[in-house]
């Protein structure tokens, strides 16, 4: 960085933008920021220089320099309004976030900014940086620290009645409790976010986030039809904004279709006008699972899991439903295999399905207890005996109805006799 400063003028900015390489542009912007002038025009030029400089540093992946830039700009923040300071600080933090592999740096940067904001008594900015810090801690799986930070922040923001920030924080709390598998608290926090959102205008992106979280919680409760409608609302919002989260909303929509045994609809959704925009590994993974489900093929399902591990097993939302989906497919596969038989060796079924005998035997016994089919296990002979579906005999319901009617007649006669005796 050069020691000689450049005057904060539009000419200096033009000089920086016309520089031959990014390093030279960065050096010129630093020199503009060193200008001692504090006139309104100079401050405006410096603000523009900061924006351009942070963009260049982000493009060059110089995260540490962005961090030191925030420290260097603290005297400058005293000269400009607090709202502009907040915009610059959040812009630089966002720039650091766009550089891959900077999670730890972002956390330490946010902690530094929280301390500085507390010392400078900048409450508005501190609360937003703390909310960002809580989100970063949650991503890093530091759940207890994030929860402690949020609990104090929620009380403070509710007292100030900052509805827009309150929606963000309640949403974050809902995600945090969901990660900790505390569904009642996750639902309560989401309800609080919806209540706050109803009182103000909520940007479409934030409304989409609320709908996405609602869908996730309903899917967790196995209410896939309601979850599908929420994911659809989220998808429409994100699709209109060209938000990258649109593909995940669409992916979860397809998951809901598969979970309610409507796998045939998946291909239609993917080939729709909106779906074609997001064709890629995420949708290919769900299509492979849908095909396996439609064909009741456990082998195809396991192939899909292996081929699309990043999209299926490493996605925490999809992964939560994979075990129940696997059980459903296993049951359907076993039902398909035992359909032609009245008595069959368990070892033969295990060979057909390519799974261990013990695993197949345990699953068959569970299915018999759950009344998925009528049968019994002959463990001495190592066979499964399948019974014909028992036909319901109409005489029993008719007998029960007759007894019920006789009871009513007796009660009526008793009431009449009591009146006569009186």
Automatic annotation (TrEMBL):
UniProt GO BP: protein catabolic process
Domain annotation PCI: ranges: 223-391
Keywords from the UniProt entry: Proteasome
GO cellular component: proteasome complex
Pfam family, one: RPN6_N
PROSITE patterns recorded: PCI (PS50250)
SUPFAM superfamilies: TPR-like (SSF48452), Winged helix' DNA-binding domain (SSF46785)
InterPro entries, per database record: 26S_Proteasome/COP9_Components, PCI_dom, Rpn6_C_helix, Rpn6_N, TPR-like_helical_dom_sf, WH_DNA-bd_sf
SMART domains (UniProt xref): PAM (SM00753), PINT (SM00088)
Tagged with keyword Kinase: no
Family: Belongs to the proteasome subunit S9 family.
Protein's name in the database: PCI domain-containing protein
Lineage: Eukaryota, Viridiplantae, Streptophyta, Embryophyta, Tracheophyta
């Amino acid at each position: 960085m050069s020691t000689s400063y450049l005057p904060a003028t539009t000419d200096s900015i033009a000089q920086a933008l016309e520089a031959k390489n990014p390093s030279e542009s960065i050096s010129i912007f630093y020199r503009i920021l060193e200008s001692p002038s504090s006139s309104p025009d100079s401050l405006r030029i410096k603000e523009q220089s900061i924006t351009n400089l942070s963009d260049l540093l982000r493009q060059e992946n110089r995260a540490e320099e962005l961090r030191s830039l925030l420290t260097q700009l603290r005297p400058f923040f005293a000269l400009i309004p607090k709202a502009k300071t907040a915009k610059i600080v959040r812009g630089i933090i966002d720039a650091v976030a766009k550089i891959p592999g900077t999670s730890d740096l972002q956390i330490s940067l946010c902690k530094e900014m929280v301390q500085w904001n507390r010392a400078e008594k900048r409450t508005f900015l501190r609360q937003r940086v703390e909310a960002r810090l809580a989100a970063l801690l949650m991503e890093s799986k530091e759940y207890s620290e994030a929860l402690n930070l949020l609990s104090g922040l929620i009380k403070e923001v509710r007292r100030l009645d900052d509805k827009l920030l309150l929606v963000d924080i309640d949403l974050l709390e809902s995600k945090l409790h969901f990660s900790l598998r505390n569904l009642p608290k996750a639902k309560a926090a989401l309800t609080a976010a919806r209540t706050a959102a109803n009182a103000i205008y909520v940007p479409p992106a934030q409304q989409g986030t609320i709908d996405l979280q609602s869908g996730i919680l309903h899917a967790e409760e196995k209410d896939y039809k309601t979850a599908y409608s929420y994911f659809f609302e989220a998808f429409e919002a994100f699709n209109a904004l060209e938000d990258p989260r649109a593909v995940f909303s669409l992916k979860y929509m397809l998951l809901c279709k598969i979970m309610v045994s409507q796998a045939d609809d998946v291909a239609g959704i993917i080939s729709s006008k909106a779906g074609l925009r997001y064709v890629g590994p995420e949708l290919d993974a769900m299509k492979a699972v849908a095909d396996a489900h439609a064909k009741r093929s456990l082998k195809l399902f396991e192939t899909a899991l292996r081929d699309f591990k990043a999209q299926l097993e490493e996605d925490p939302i999809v992964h939560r439903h994979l075990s129940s989906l696997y059980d459903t497919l296993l049951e359907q596969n076993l039902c398909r295999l035992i359909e032609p038989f009245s008595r069959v060796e368990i070892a033969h079924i295990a060979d057909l399905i390519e799974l261990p005998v013990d695993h197949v035997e345990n699953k068959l016994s569970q299915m018999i207890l759950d009344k998925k089919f009528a049968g019994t296990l002959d463990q001495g002979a190592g066979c499964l005996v399948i019974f014909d579906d028992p036909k319901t005999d109409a005489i029993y319901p008719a007998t029960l109805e007759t007894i019920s009617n006789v009871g009513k007649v007796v009660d009526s006669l008793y009431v009449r006799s009591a009146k006569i005796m009186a």
